């Protein structure tokens, strides 16, 4: 998308710098009374706008570099936002902060595997009779996600070196290193060794969302100037999102508390916020018969959420006070196990009916409901 629309600046160009200005004006200040409410409302609106703008500009950069690099750019951009939100909220301390990282990462995994994947499969299957994708690529991504989830979120509840659902120091360091290694191996496989497993098939020209001036059946990539502008605005948007999240954190926690929801639901709110644009992008891709791209986004988001967040949190734990609980509760373990089985059965055939999409969405609904009523 061009930076201008009918001669005017597009909102995705305006939102990041405006968000950065508001962040500079509100950072370190705590207004009281009605002004505080105004600040929270404005900061919240700009936070959402900055998130959406960040993913839009990540899409522009992704289109320039091509697939599967494009999906990787989106996943990493979303994960940077997620890590920033987690760390800023953990630094504020308070009740339930020891499980915030776990709750947010687990929520991101459930939303990605069941929400993004389920909605994409449902939309594509309803529109094109069957949702078709490459089982080798989807299977490799799913296996990596499940291995990461097992090593970082399941094992802490069964180790004996530390009490409760915590890793000991060496165990946390091992989990962080393994996460980086697994994520790196997958990225190498996806972008170098077996890149063809993660590429979409041919797409009808009518399904393209950008101009096709050379009539080659593929949308034309953005120009170098458009890409450079989007990259700069992406960086501004990411910084703004992290900063505004810290400004908004008291309002998010107060809203969750006022509704009577468990503190762990804060993690669900964070995951829903940062993955909403990713969900939209995947659904649009699925509607255009680019189901493999949608699955790259879904599985890639879950993988990056664990593979990049856990190492950062492990390093940050050196400066954070109090325990860090990463192990899943029994209900969460059951939901992860059911999701793993269903997702495996979904990707093996390489095509899916609307039923599979519906099953994943029901699992997402169960996760959200049980997060509110554990």
For the structure shown, list the relevant keywords.
two-stranded antiparallel ribbon, potassium:proton antiporter activity, transmembrane, NaCa_Exmemb, 374 residues, two-stranded antiparallel sheet, mainly alpha, 2% strand, single chain, 4 strands, A middle domain of Talin 1
Side by side, the strands of the main sheet go: 1-2
Instruction: State the order of secondary-structure elements, H for helix, E for strand.
Output: EEHHHHEHHHHHHEH
Number of separate structural domains: 1
**Which regions contain 5 or more consecutive residues with pLDDT less than 50?**
203-218
Helix content: over 70%
Give structural notes.
The chain is mostly helical. 72% of the residues lie in helices and 2% in strands. It is built from eleven helices and four strands, in the order ββααααβααααααβα. It has helices at residues 11-26, 33-65, 69-92, 100-128, 135-154, 169-193, 224-258, 265-287, 291-316, 330-347, 354-372; strands spanning 4-5, 8-9, 131-132, 351-352. The strands form two sheets. It has a two-stranded antiparallel ribbon with strand order 1-2. It has a two-stranded antiparallel ribbon with strand order 3-4. Helix 3 (69-92) packs parallel to helix 9, helix 5 (135-154) runs antiparallel to helix 6 (169-193) and helix 8 runs antiparallel to helix 9. The longest helix is centred in the middle third of the chain and has 35 residues, at 224-258. It is globular and about 55 Å long.
């Amino acid at each position: 998308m061009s930076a201008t629309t009918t001669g005017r600046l597009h909102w995705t160009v305006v939102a990041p710098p405006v968000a950065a200005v508001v962040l500079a004006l509100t950072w370190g200040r705590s207004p009281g009374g009605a002004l505080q409410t105004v600040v929270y409302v404005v900061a919240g609106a700009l936070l959402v706008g900055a998130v959406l703008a960040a993913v839009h500009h990540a899409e522009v950069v992704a289109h320039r570099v091509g697939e599967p690099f494009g999906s990787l750019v989106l996943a990493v951009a979303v994960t940077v936002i997620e890590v920033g939100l987690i760390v800023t909220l953990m630094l504020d301390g308070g009740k339930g902060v020891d499980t915030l990282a776990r709750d947010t990462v687990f929520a991101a995994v459930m939303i990605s595997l069941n929400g993004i994947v389920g909605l994409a499969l449902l939309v594509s299957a309803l529109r094109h009779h069957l949702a078709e994708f490459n089982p080798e690529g989807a299977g490799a991504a799913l296996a990596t996600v499940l291995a990461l989830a097992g090593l970082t979120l399941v094992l802490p509840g069964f180790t004996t070196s530390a009490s409760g659902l915590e890793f000991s120091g060496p165990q946390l360091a091992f989990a962080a290193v393994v996460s980086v290694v697994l994520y790196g191996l997958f990225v190498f496989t996806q972008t170098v060794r077996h890149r063809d497993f993660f590429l979409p098939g041919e797409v009808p020209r009518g399904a393209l969302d950008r101009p096709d001036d050379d009539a080659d059946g593929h949308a034309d990539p953005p120009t170098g100037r458009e890409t450079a502008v989007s990259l700069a605005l992406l960086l501004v948007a990411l910084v703004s999102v992290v900063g505004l999240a810290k400004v908004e954190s008291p309002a998010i926690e107060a809203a969750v508390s006022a509704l009577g929801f468990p503190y762990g639901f804060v993690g669900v709110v964070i995951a829903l916020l940062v993955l909403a644009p990713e969900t939209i992008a995947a659904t649009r891709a699925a509607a255009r018969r680019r189901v493999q791209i949608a699955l790259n986004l879904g599985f890639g988001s879950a993988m990056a959420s664990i593979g990049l967040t856990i190492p950062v949190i492990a390093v940050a734990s050196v400066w954070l006070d109090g325990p860090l609980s990463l192990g899943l509760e029994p209900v969460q373990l059951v939901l992860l196990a059911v999701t793993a089985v269903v997702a495996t059965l979904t990707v093996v055939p390489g095509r899916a009916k609307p039923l599979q999409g519906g099953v994943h969405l029901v699992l997402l609904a169960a996760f959200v409901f049980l997060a509110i009523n554990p």
